[in-house]
Amino acid sequence: MEKGKRPNVSLNKKTRKKNPTDTIDPVKNFERWKKKYNKTKTRVKQEKRQKRRPEWQVEKEAIQRLVNKYNEINAKDAERFSDFPISKNTLRGLMEAQYRQPTEIQRQTIGFALQGKDVLGAAKTGSGKTLAFLIPVLECLYRQQWTAMDGLGALIISPTRELAYQTFEVLRKVGKNHEFSAGLIIGGKDLKNESEKIHRTNIIICTPGRLLQHMDETAAFHASDLHMLVLDEADRILDMGFADTINAIVENLPKTRQTLLFSATQTKSVKDLARLSLKDPEYVWVHEKAKFSTPATLEQNYVVCELHQKVNMLFSFIRSHLQKKVIVFFACCKEVQYLFRVFCRLRPGMPILALHGKQQQMKRVEVYNDFIKKKNAVLFATDIAARGLDFPAVNWVLQFDCPEDANTYIHRVGRTARYKEGGEALLVLLPSEEKDMVSQLQEKKVPINRIQVNPEKLTSVQQKLEAFLAQEKEQKERAQRCFVSYLRSVYLMKNKDVFDVFQLKLQEYAASLGLAVAPRVRFLNKVQKQRADPGQSGGLGDVAPHEEEKELKSFKAQLRGDGLKSEAQESQSSDEEDDEEEDEEKVHNTIKKTEKETKFKEAKKVLKRNFQVNTKLVFTEEGQMVQQWPPLQRTAVPATEGEEDDCTSGINVEEARERLRREDQEFDKLEYRRKVKEKHRVRLPAAGTRKRIHSDHIDDSGEEEEEEEEEEEEEEEAAAGSRKRPRQQATAKPLDTGLSLAEDEALVLHLLGNRS
Ligand SMILES: Nc1ncnc2c1ncn2[C@@H]1O[C@H](COP(=O)(O)OP(=O)(O)OP(=O)(O)O)[C@@H](O)[C@H]1O
């Protein structure tokens, strides 16, 4: 039976298969196939779902594969970034930013850093140190699978705000495929705003003072999970007197961190810092055995020039390099401020920009970006721009004032000839500076040659400067400040073999700035007296050596206009600046103290008598006061361009008439506005309590700076040779008349009526 059954079954199957109706009905056939297909599909899907692991796990496996390759890194053979075990996200970021092959410092550093070692890296300027630490930073956090919730993972400390900003920009480009958050913590920004975000930031790029301030004041900020610390431009950080700040910061960081320390020059203090903050570091000195310490593509020369010829030389240099991009380095902010303004007015035919520490942070960033964008321009700068800043395509670095030492020289010239590009550098030395400075440079392996400049070929601008100063009191004061500040900077330089203020010919120097008389320099007089009479006390010579050192440090920082102070330090330094300004004002003021007192007493008397100062009162012979109307007019309209320029051709009657007409209009306007305001005030006695901020309540300093910055912008345009806008228009702001809209309208209609 059984035997019989089996064939039946198989037979059945066979018969079913061969059933002619089945094969004939394709619809039924398809439906059966579809059913089967769907079943298989769901089964496979289910199996896949079971097999699929969480993303983090997949990433972890990829990381593990990379980490396994760390021990096989062969820096010598790495020709491309992809030869390193680097994450896909970082590689993509590098490719997109057009970085394909590592530079020498990058090749030698990345391997050690990936292996988790501390590194002390030194290489010439422009050799690519930034990427040498940014890639390890990104990889370190990627390895840890860092997320926004994990807080601070890496800290990069830069000496200046500008350098921090630049590093931040490179990080944004290279790290854009990662999901870490990055923050720029520098002075000059809103502290409260920073405090709110800082605890959620994974990578912080900061200046030392500001970071320490957050460590002290921001409750939510802590660095207990920090994995990597980077000290960029360590030599500069230390030079600026931040050793204590860095030590305090490092004390607050976990000991288990990895530290990378970079510096363009190797000084004793850098080595000391390395000893304190690094653990068994790997030394990467790329150009240790190089014949020269500056890039081979950089051509370097110096000229010897008398102090009073330097301004002429600078003007002639600019005139003969109109199509180039040039950075000119000066010793102090006030020199930059004055020479920038007068050079703009001289209109050399190319844009002039100024970068110094007295500008507000936003302005500094703006100038930096502006200079980067321009094809040809001159940037007047203090040493704030000397280190680490990457201005692409700079053709020339001109050092108008002798650098403090060979290291500063190397950093300054490092702004050109970056990453395989060519560049030229010219150092201007006074005869008294030549011998020692040149031997210092030779010691530092700087190949520099002397070239001659024919003094007869220099264009003299002295007369024009004199004319400018005669026209504008403000400009004259700037020139005086520039004079005093430069002398002070020379006096405070440590290396007295190079810098000797007593060898400078002051009268000639003052004349070269357009000043008829050399301002009195109080501190020089004191020192001179002290020298003549060493027994006398109270002079600068009495200052204890360490105090002098302290003064020297703080003043140098001021002169450079360094922007890396904490808010507290900043306010202190601005006080110092004010003091300095006061000092200088005192220098200009030749009136004796006793005389001042008498004047003060006189003024008090006048006030008591209820006289109005600066008003002319006329009386008849009988003693009756004569009403003077309209009151005496003071010039309310600034001179126009033509008038300013044409100061040698006598009085132009047509112009004078036009000017008087404009003055009348302007005067009428002011008078009318004053009267309406007065009337308005009577009607609204509570006006003083209203919330509107009147100009005289606004903090002077900021306003002044803004005004200076606005002026700077105007001047830049003028320098480039573009036609100057009429001043009135250039400074036009919405006029706050203190009136209602309807009254404002009435005023405008009245003024328009006046004009027609
Ligand atoms: N691997 C690379 N490929 C191409 N260009 C690079 C590479 N690395 C760096 N650069 C470019 O070289 C220039 C100098 O780089 P970077 O600013 O990092 O130098 P640096 O050594 O820090 O200089 P400094 O000491 O003056 O601060 C930059 O313009 C940068 O974009």
Keywords:
single chain; 756 residues; alpha/beta; seven-stranded parallel β-sheet; disordered N terminus; disordered C terminus; binds adenosine-5'-triphosphate; nucleotide-binding; RNA helicase activity
Distance between the termini: 129 Å
Mean pLDDT: 76
| Total helical segments | 30
Main sheet characteristics: 7 strands, parallel
Q: Which percent band covers the strand fraction?
A: 5-15%
Radius of gyration: 36 Å
Strand adjacency order, main sheet: 3-4-2-5-6-1-7
**Alpha-beta classification:** alpha/beta
Number of strands: 16
Q: In one word, what is the shape?
A: elongated
Bin the helical content.
Answer: 40-55%
Enumerate the spans where pLDDT stays under 50 for 5 or more consecutive residues: 1-15, 537-552, 558-598, 627-651, 682-707, 722-741, 752-756
Ions and ligands: adenosine-5'-triphosphate
InterPro entries: DEAD/DEAH_box_helicase_dom, Helicase_ATP-bd, Helicase_C-like, P-loop_NTPase, RNA-helicase_DEAD-box_CS, RNA_helicase_DEAD_Q_motif, SPB4-like_CTE
Catalytic activity: ATP + H2O = ADP + phosphate + H(+)
Biased composition (Acidic residues): 573-584, 701-718
Pfam family, one: DEAD
At a glance:
The protein has 30 helices and 16 strands.
Report what the structure shows.
- By secondary structure, this protein is α/β, with parallel strands linked by helices.
- The chain has a seven-stranded parallel sheet, with helices on both faces. Strands 10-11-9-12-13-8-14 form a seven-stranded parallel sheet, with helices on both faces.
- A hairpin with a 5-residue loop joins strand 15 and strand 16.
- Mean pLDDT is 76; it is low at 1-15, 537-552, 558-598, 627-651, 682-707, 722-741 and 752-756.
- Adenosine-5'-triphosphate is lined by residues 99, 101-103, 106, 123, 125-131, 264, 388, 390, 392, 414, 418-419.
